[in-house]
Each structure stands twice: as structure tokens, then as C-alpha cells.
UniProtKB/TrEMBL annotation:
CDD domains, per database record: GTP_cyclohydro2
The protein's name in its UniProt record: GTP cyclohydrolase-2
Record-linked InterPro entries: GTP_cyclohydro_II (IPR032677), RibA (IPR000926), RibA-like_sf (IPR036144)
Annotated SUPFAM superfamilies: RibA-like
HAMAP family, sorted: RibA
Catalytic activity as recorded in UniProt: GTP + 4 H2O = 2,5-diamino-6-hydroxy-4-(5-phosphoribosylamino)-pyrimidine + formate + 2 phosphate + 3 H(+)
Gene name of this polypeptide: ribA
The GTP cyclohydrolase II domain, residue ranges: 8-162
Residues annotated to bind GTP: R45, I46, H47, S48, E49, Q66, E87, G88, R89, T109, T144, K149
Name of the top EC class for this enzyme: hydrolase
Active site: D121 (proton acceptor), R123 (nucleophile)
Organism of origin: Sulfurospirillum tamanense
Length: 187
């Protein structure tokens, strides 16, 4: 896939002053938010888009808390947040809302995806390899609670997994339970 890369620009934010760059993969415009200096094994968060959580503040998941904790972390330590446009574990917003409607009827996150004809998780991470290569990064400390994340990547060494500790709320308890019991997350 041909990737179009933007210039680097400054991004002052409520979490610190970052640099920002876009990597356009077909219709998907992924974002890299980074804070220099980038060490030989920088802290990296691979964040999957969640418009409802990240922008609207939905309490059904832990995405916004994870994003904010990651930005605060790279402000302190240096590193990057790679914001991948894989809404709804890559089923898209319309399908995610349909999955939410099924969840309203009692299906859990995984069952709702299956009802709609999708795998529980439809994400892929090849573009991460392209992005890290662009920055000459071959080893990272990965901010995640998902030990299986990035397993498929050949040219990147994960030297350390850094957990993201987030408090649950009454609305995302079920979502977190499914992640822990069915998807192998360490919560
Ligand atoms: N299909 C579907 N996707 C969801 C649902 N809730 C959140 N998501 C998406 O899940 C993605 C985040 O994935 P998670 O499984 O929470 O976390 P992860 O990226 O595997 O692991 P961490 O690195 O620990 O965050 C985002 O793209 C959200 O839009 C849901 O109920 N159904
Ligand atoms: Zn979310």
C-alpha cells in the first residue's frame, strides 16, 4: 500500500506540546503524535480510533482514559502515540453502533461482532511497521494491556510492555470483563 506522509507540525495540547504527522494509507489518515527526544527504545502507544470514547467521552469503554494517560506519559518520558483509524476494532463506526444496539439487547462485545458477521477483532498493524521504520525505530516499549498486540510484526522488538492502569466505571465493567476473560487483556 502506498503511504502518503505529511510534514511535521507543532501541536500544543492540554497534555503538553507535541509534534504531529499524518500517514495516509488509502482512505485512512493515521496520526502520529510524538515528543522528542525519541530514545533507542521509545515508549509507544498504538491507539485504535474510538470516536465515541476519545471525542464524545463515552463511558462504555476505556479508550479515552487510555489515550489521555498515554499522552501524559509521552509528555513526561518522550515517545509517541500512533493513532490508527481502526474505529470499532476496524469494523467502522456504523457497524460499531449496530454492535452497541445488540449490546443493548444483552449480547457482549464479542457476541455482537459475531452477530454482525465480523471477527471479535478485525485490526491489522502492518502500517505500524511503516511508521516506525520512517522514524528509524526498531525496538519499542509498548503501552498496552493487550499482550497479543503487535504479535504479528516482524521487524519490531517489544522490549517491554508498559501497562495502562485505568479505573473502571459501572458502564464499562462488562466490556473490561470480556477483554480480560475472552481477549487475554491483563487488567
Ligand atoms: N467492535 C467493537 N469495537 C469496540 C467496542 N468498544 C470499543 N471498541 C473499539 O475497540 C478499540 C480499542 O480496543 P481495545 O480492545 O479496547 O484495546 P486494545 O487496543 O486491544 O488494547 P490496549 O492497548 O490495552 O488498549 C477501538 O477501536 C474502539 O473503537 C465494541 O463494543 N465493539
Ligand atoms: Zn472506546
Amino acid at each position: 500500500m502506498n503511504i502518503e506522509i505529511s510534514e511535521v507540525a507543532n501541536l500544543p495540547s492540554r497534555f503538553g506540546t507535541f509534534k504531529i504527522q499524518t500517514f495516509k494509507e488509502g482512505p485512512k489518515e493515521h496520526l502520529v503524535i510524538f515528543k522528542e527526544p525519541l530514545s533507542a527504545e521509545p515508549v509507544v502507544r498504538i491507539h485504535s480510533e474510538c470516536l465515541t470514547g476519545d471525542a464524545i467521552g463515552s463511558l462504555k469503554c476505556d479508550c479515552r482514559d487510555q489515550l489521555e494517560a498515554s499522552l501524559a506519559c509521552i509528555e513526561k518520558e518522550g515517545g509517541m502515540v500512533i493513532y490508527l483509524r481502526q474505529e470499532g476494532r476496524n469494523i467502522g463506526l456504523l457497524n460499531k453502533v449496530n454492535a452497541y444496539a445488540l449490546q443493548d439487547k444483552g449480547f457482549d462485545t464479542v457476541e455482537a461482532n459475531h452477530q454482525l458477521g465480523f471477527e471479535a477483532d478485525e485490526r491489522t498493524y502492518e502500517v505500524v511497521e511503516t511508521i516506525l521504520k520512517h522514524f528509524n525505530i526498531t525496538a519499542i516499549q509498548l503501552l498496552t494491556n493487550n499482550p497479543k498486540k503487535l504479535q504479528g510484526l516482524k521487524n519490531i522488538t517489544i522490549t517491554k510492555r508498559l501497562p495502562i492502569i485505568i479505573l473502571s466505571n459501572p458502564h464499562n465493567k462488562g466490556y473490561l470483563k470480556v477483554k480480560q476473560e475472552q481477549m487475554g487483556h491483563l487488567l
